[in-house]
Amino acid sequence: MVKNEKGKIYADNFIIYEVNMDYYMDLWYNEKEKEVEENIIIVMIGLEQKELKRLSEKDAVVKRYMKELDRVNEEPEFREYMSYEEDQRKITNSLIS
Questions:
Q1: Measuring CA to CA, which residue among 37, 11, 12, 15 is closest to residue 24?
Q2: Is 14 left (phi over 0), alpha (psi -120 to 50) or beta?
Q3: Residue 19: its pLDDT value, please?
Q4: Quick one: CA dihedral 44, 45, 48, 49, positive or negative?
Q5: Residue 35: exposure state from Cβ atoms within 10 A (0-12, 13-18, ≥19)
Q6: I need a surface site. Which of 61, 68, 77, 89 has the fewest CB within 10 A?
Q7: What is the distance between the alpha carbons of residues 91 and 67, in angstroms, rounded to a whole number?
Q8: 52/50 Cα distance (integer angstroms)
Q9: Cβ(4)–Cβ(10) under 8 Å?
Q10: What's the pLDDT tens digit per position in 37-93?
């Protein structure tokens, strides 16, 4: 569960997993193909787009995710959290305060 310092519970209906990404990235960089295939979804999380493209050539699931990633990256509202003008305004306000 997630709770604050005073013990107030915010949520108790989910599980938090901690994943050692260094382990999975070592599998990828040391080219341990069998282990990468067994853990492909976790390995995908740690890869850059260039590496994902290489992996997508071998796996249909990764290829599907790669297509979705490309589609989302093409849509400006997903890439831009806020407009340039709003970003500048917030920077100015932060400097003032």
A1: 37
A2: beta
A3: 92
A4: positive
A5: middle
A6: 77
A7: 35
A8: 5
A9: yes
A10: 999 989 988 988 888 888 888 888 888 988 888 887 787 666 666 677 888 898 899
pTM of the predicted protein model: 0.59
pLDDT in the model for residue 78? 62
Residue 24 tokens, joined: 């999975």
| CA neighbours closer than 13 Å in the CB half-sphere of residue 56 | 16
Looking at residue 59, its amino acid is: D
Q: What is the distance between the alpha carbons of residues 37 and 58, in angstroms, rounded to a whole number?
A: 10
Widest CA span of the chain, in angstroms?
A: 55
